[in-house]
Amino acid sequence: MSFGYLDLDGTPLRGRLLGVGGSGVVVERDGTAFKLPRRRSGDSQEQIARNHRFIEHEKEVHRRLQGCYGVVRCLSLASPGMIQMEVMRKGNLYAYLRHARMTRNYPSRDVQLSWFRDLARALVGIHDRRVMFVSFFTRNLLLSMDLTIKFSDFGRSILLPPEIDMRTTERYGYSISMDIGQFGMILYQVITGGQYCDFGFVFADDHPGPEEPVWPARAALPETYDLWLGPLIDKCWTQGAFEDARSLLAELESVTITISHSHLSTNAHPRDHNRPRLNIRRRIPAIPIPELLTLLLQGIQILAAHNPTLHEPQQDSKHPHATRHAGDGIDCVVVRSHNPIQFVYFRLRDPVGDPDQHAEEVGLEHRRRAAVVRQVPLTLLTWYCIPPWAALLWR
């Protein structure tokens, strides 16, 4: 189906449509992906010529990047106005994340980390060949059947002389720092399950790079303090924090996954893995007030049965944004958020053994909260618009 797009000879476009960009369309024919200038009936000759120039520019970039790790493989660049490439069967990363949100089948942190390392390794090779990628969008990152990730769409990329020093070079106001900043945008979108993040570039029509790019103010970018790899994302978004893509890759290579998520569903939303709290407001309905009061009383009864004596608040090591009120035989951890939701859980401690020996963190789901309170020696009390000090009413 052509969807109104035309082939090079002006006839309806043949083949299965794989993707549409600002200047090109990609179709599959006989197991090969063909990228052609974007063209529809009614387009002016100027538009057609402009899109053709972008395809020819992209061919020049691919010639420079032949054999580069992590770049979609070109099969032929010989035909005018056409690029023949391998087909990436899993499509683009944007569609993959969107489908993951719908099916709640999110890639694990191991998969995510392998993507980030592969992309950083590919970016090292791209920069070594004196190319600035520029177009860091999830639609321009393609996945194979085994979830290998590769760069594609170099129509906006900037091709530099081979002898130039990439670390000190700018073109159209663009530099490798911008590539790294946009790399941080990709990290954020993958880790949050596709949550929108805009690094704020407007592309010009007359040259490959963006039009008057300006490094975004930190306040214009999303908060990352409670995300997995949040400090690394912030470092990407701090101009000059990474000298080059190699230093970015080195930091990613040093990342280890040590946090256990056994208490969470394997299909849990990335927010549930990345944050020190469960965002109940977004995932489940509000708890009715009578049931909420019952839950609060049950928790206080459990506490009273153990007769705790609370001491001065301390920073909780397991939750950086929480306060621990440690006592004799029990811990109360108040986890604060920026919205009116506060989460308090009580962890019973064995006074003679390991403090966590008889404790198990339990995510309190809306449909299971009563059973959780009855069956395990840990209670997660959730309420709206009640300040954290209300958790200490039993004192």
From TrEMBL:
Annotated GO biological process: signal transduction
Protein kinase domain boundaries: 12-264
InterPro entries: Kinase-like_dom_sf, Prot_kinase_dom, Ser-Thr/Tyr_kinase_cat_dom, Ser_Thr_protein_kinase
Any one annotated GO CC term: cytoplasm
GO molecular function: ATP binding; protein kinase activity
Protein name in UniProt: Protein kinase domain-containing protein
